[in-house]
Specification:
4-stranded antiparallel sheet; 3 helices
């Protein structure tokens, strides 16, 4: 079964890292790299998204027209910051993967069509 793990709010969670020393930042980066290595056999694709502030949104306008906005769908520090696509046996296996995610972020899990 394929699932997409969508990471939310990582930008907000990273703010305290600005005041954190380099050794602690390196330690967290190492933990994240280890997580990806530990689950590499189940990860089919992953991407980190640029800041939500760089988003372009299309919204319905008058009639068939679309409005193009240089802003995110929702101006929210909890916007999606990245995703990982995984191939696992079931939702329980996806949940087990997320349980040991080392960084501070909310993770939404959705079946992939």
């Amino acid at each position: 079964m394929r699932y997409t793990l969508m990471f939310r709010g990582a930008e907000r969670a990273e703010q305290p890292w600005e005041a954190t020393d380099d050794n602690e930042c390196d330690h967290m980066s190492t933990k994240v790299e280890r997580w990806f290595s530990a689950h590499a056999g189940r990860i089919t694709h992953s991407r980190r998204l640029r800041s939500y502030e760089t988003a372009t949104t299309l919204r319905p306008g008058q009639g068939p027209l679309l409005r193009v906005l240089d802003e995110p769908f929702c101006a929210d520090r909890d916007a999606f910051t990245g995703y990982v696509e995984v191939e696992v046996a079931d939702l329980d296996e996806a949940l087990d993967m997320v349980r040991d995610w080392p960084a501070r972020a909310t993770v939404e899990i959705r079946p992939t069509a």
